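Final report, closing paragraph on structural work. Over the funding period we assembled a curated collection of sequence-structure pairs, and we close with a single example.
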Amino acid sequence: MKSICVYCGSNSGTRKEYSKSARLLGKELAKNQIQLIYGGSNSGLMGQISNEVLKNGGKVTGVIPEILLLNEPPNHKLTKLIYVKNMSERKERMSDLCDGFIALPGGLGTYEELFDTISWARLKIHKKPIGLLNIEHFFDPLLDMLKNSCREGFINDLSLKSLLISNSPHQLVNNMINYKSS
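Its predicted structure, as stored:
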């Protein structure tokens, strides 16, 4: 595992635990010499995790669409900052650059990226691990919704079983490192 793409909020959220866990994940990535691939922003959880990786001697590649430059300041301290035309190109580029994915709390963009990644795995477009850092049970309602979709026959339980879920950044990174694709 050389690189992990992290999806998370460009806001910090209402709970201090979100920021704390984002920074702990950044430390874990740097400690394990895993490069962070992310959306390039210096705002919110995105800025916190990227700055923590850099602070701890790690490498960070940001991928930011030109349209977001109007709303989100990029982190200019990054190892590498890649500018792309749009969100679709961003997702594709981040996927190409990483060996796995982790989602932290976030908003609509985080959910959209996460669901694309899960869908791509089910379609066998990639065989990379997908982790959820379930800080303060943030993803519990989402997991309940996915379980309901399974019960109602819209998705099979392989979509759920393929997710690596933990509330511990250390444990989640270890699970990602030890992941064996089926």
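The radius of gyration is 15 Å. The chain has a mean pLDDT of 93. We thank the funder for supporting this effort.
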